[in-house]
Specification:
- The chain is built from 1 helix and no strands.
- The protein has 102 residues and is mainly α.
- It has a domain of 27 residues.
- It starts with a helix and ends with a helix.
- One of its GO terms (molecular function) is structural constituent of chromatin.
- One of its GO terms (biological process) is nucleosome assembly.
- InterPro entries: H1/H5.
Length: 102
């Protein structure tokens, strides 16, 4: 009988431990608050990344401008070549005509 009562006593001690757990819960809440703060710093980092992307965009725009210039130059060259060809053809025709007249 005496042994049995002792066991009961230990059970009561366990109940007390449960009460201690409740106190721990408040501590956990504090930890959560800290986590929220950390998230804020992460957001700031994301913003930095965005600025980097913008820089890249500006570089791309510059490249586009350059290619546009190159394309324009190419077109101009082609036009000139065509005009030159036409002129040459005209010259040839004139020469032929002269020969015929003789």
């Amino acid at each position: 009988k005496k042994k049995k009562t002792k066991k009961k006593k230990t059970k009561k001690k366990k109940k007390k431990k449960k009460k201690k757990k409740k106190k721990k819960k408040t501590k956990k809440k504090k930890k959560k608050k800290q986590k929220k703060k950390k998230k804020k710093t992460k957001k700031k980092k994301k913003k930095k990344k965005k600025t980097k992307k913008k820089k890249n965009k500006s570089k791309k725009k510059k490249k586009k401008k350059k290619t546009k210039k190159k394309k324009k130059k190419k077109k101009m060259k082609e036009k000139k070549n065509q005009e030159d060809k036409k002129k040459k053809k005209k010259k040839k025709k004139k020469k032929k005509k002269k020969k015929k007249k003789r």
